[in-house]
């Protein structure tokens, strides 16, 4: 354990929690030139708890911005070309009912809609890639046990496994410490929402020879619509490791080997690697921040996993908050900018929770029909109706680019009327996205010779704001924020940058 490492007395930003959101916050801060310390209890990432498995197209665009998208793809056990299908079956080794293609933006390779497609990658891999990027800023083997905020900063109490405690002073703290967040409690924030009544049971297992016996071909998910044992199954790699969710199963009733065999529809060879009982939660913190302490990821919101939105929403939190903290700490924005974090991100989380809850309203138990388990004649009689119900109720779960790519910050005080959307992606040359030319801070995109361009350049110089000019002759001007959302376009630009930074 890392028990002898020197811990600094003070840091600009301390991040409580080194899951994917905490690590992403640290990567964004480093990208903006700000030091931080990430405090994380786990020494190592556990591959027996794969958790999230879908990195959305938008998150992949943000990883591309950090130079990490290709690293994640190269190390992902399932290449993006492997499958974009969700297959609905009566059992893994049984009959196919229907399938849905183009799932989770996995089909967006080379698309004009996004600079990156989605990527299937278990959460531990995402964490490993981000840990490597964070480097020495990650302090493992310690946990944040409390904090005390005052007018000038935050005093954070950190504990070692042996119980020894020390204090670190930070200008700001970001709480990425999950559902039982110490930081959320410290600022008096509370979850609002509900918990789903239905139990679920996750299993990670090894099944030699199962892949070779599968009649349905590659798929992101296999949905088993067996009324006696409904659930979902997928591959963690192209070897012998699989995951499944047995739906409606309580921990005290669970026999993992039997559950896997029921989903497979045969007495296959099974080695259980890990189990994890859980229930879905629809929770949103009633406040995201005090003056110097901010919540992100699961500390701020939780949603059901259906649709693959979980940690991806947290990555959006990390980038939104990270660039704003950097702007304040580097002196080119007023502290008032930080108040816009909650105003911009909380509505996105609320929409995501609502969408994921809607996806959860129809799962394998609701789609299963006892007739599917009968002889072929009976199966074929009911299959068209079940297939239609699948397509009608599950299409949005697998095709949600309006939420993933289309969310906006319209109405925020730091975007002009009619703005706030993500800058539309486009390819400038083969393999080069418009995003690749943007700067880490603000960017002015459009015709450099257009009226108003000099006004914005001069305003940036006056305020000390890093501004990259992306000259696109003949194109209208747009002021683009560090998170690739449009802050201003059209009209007279005087004061546009001041508005986008939260100046009164």
TrEMBL record:
SUPFAM superfamilies: FAD/NAD(P)-binding domain. One of its GO terms (molecular function) is FAD binding. The keyword Flavoprotein applies. InterPro entries: FAD-bd, FAD/NAD-bd_sf, RIFMO-like. Its cofactor is FAD. Gene3D superfamilies: 3.40.30.120, D-Amino Acid Oxidase, subunit A, domain 2, FAD/NAD(P)-binding domain. Pfam families: FAD_binding_3 (PF01494), Rng_hyd_C (PF21274). Residues 11-354 form the FAD-binding domain. Keywords: FAD, Flavoprotein. This is 2-polyprenyl-6-methoxyphenol hydroxylase-like FAD-dependent oxidoreductase.
